[in-house]
């Protein structure tokens, strides 16, 4: 952040300045469905021009929000980007900032970005003041399910021997097949990586069928440098992925094996594993 932006940020937190209320525009996708329809300008990040600053700068946060790094990340960021238009200013509480920062800063670091100076938690009020506080139910709920996290890039092996594949199936908690797609990135803020079609289980382990597709997508969005090496832009690649869920609840992908359409060996790998009685039903 340059000095000019820092000055503007300080001015934005001067709650005595005059403000105006505007409707949150439809193109401001990151702050749709936040429970209110009007926002105050300037916002708490010092942006006053809706079309020229607020909307385009809000798109900078879309990749982080799509990782699901914290269940209240959207509420926290939108309270700054698009503060609710009430008779009083409602900032996020310091405790909410700390909760979101502790979960989302490692994701930003994995993507090569530091936690922004503009979101220094010390600048926000304590819970003794009127502010947006964290909800305990969200943090409890989030711990009940596996979650994606930053990790060292897993091993990718071309044309592995059957023993290598079967050992990987046995050594890890889960084994799935998934088609990873790298879409060319345009100026829309949309994610560059997707999981196409169904995720099929070879070994389910602790994964949940209805949750695994989103879980793998979030892993790609968080570990973007690993994902870049897996699939070229504009292409798709089918992989067999093996890994485990660690004691802290985070997903760790250990090995990936490319599965090409003409590769018939994979069918025999799966059949051999199921004959051992290790496959999930």
From TrEMBL:
One of its GO terms (biological process) is cell differentiation. The keyword Glycosyltransferase does not apply. PROSITE patterns: FZ. CDD domains: NTR_Sfrp1_like. InterPro entries: Frizzled/SFRP, Frizzled_dom, Frizzled_dom_sf. Transmembrane segments: none annotated. Keywords: Developmental protein, Differentiation, Disulfide bond, Secreted, Signal, Wnt signaling pathway. One of its GO terms (cellular component) is extracellular space. Residues 16-134 form the FZ domain. Disulfide bonds join 97-121. This is Sizzled. It comes from Hippocampus comes.
């Amino acid at each position: 952040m340059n000095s000019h932006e820092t000055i503007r940020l300080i001015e934005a937190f001067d709650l005595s300045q005059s403000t105006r209320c505007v409707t949150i525009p439809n193109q401001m996708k990151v702050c749709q469905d936040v429970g209110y329809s009007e926002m105050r300008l300037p916002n708490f990040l010092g942006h006053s021009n809706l079309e020229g600053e607020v909307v385009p700068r809000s798109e900078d946060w879309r990749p982080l929000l799509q990782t699901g790094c914290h269940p209240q990340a959207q509420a926290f960021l939108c309270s700054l980007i698009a503060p609710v238009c009430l008779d009083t200013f409602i900032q996020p509480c310091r405790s909410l900032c700390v909760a979101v920062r502790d979960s989302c800063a490692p994701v930003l670091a994995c993507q090569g970005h530091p936690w922004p100076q503009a979101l220094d938690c010390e600048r926000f009020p304590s819970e003794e003041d009127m502010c947006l506080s964290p909800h305990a139910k969200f943090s409890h709920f989030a711990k009940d399910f596996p979650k994606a996290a930053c990790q060292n890039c897993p091993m990718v092996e071309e044309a592995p021997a059957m023993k290598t594949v079967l050992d990987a199936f046995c050594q890890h908690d889960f084994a799935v097949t998934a088609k990873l797609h790298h879409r060319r990135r345009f100026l829309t803020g949309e994610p560059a990586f997707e999981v196409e079609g169904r995720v099929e289980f070879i070994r389910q382990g602790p994964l949940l069928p209805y949750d695994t597709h989103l879980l793998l997508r979030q892993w790609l969005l968080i570990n973007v440098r690993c994902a870049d090496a897996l699939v070229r832009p504009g292409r798709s690649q089918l992989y067999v992925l093996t890994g485990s869920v660690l004691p802290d609840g985070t997903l760790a992908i250990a090995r990936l094996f490319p599965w090409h359409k003409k590769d018939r060996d994979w069918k025999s790998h799966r059949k051999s594993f199921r004959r051992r009685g290790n496959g999930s039903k």
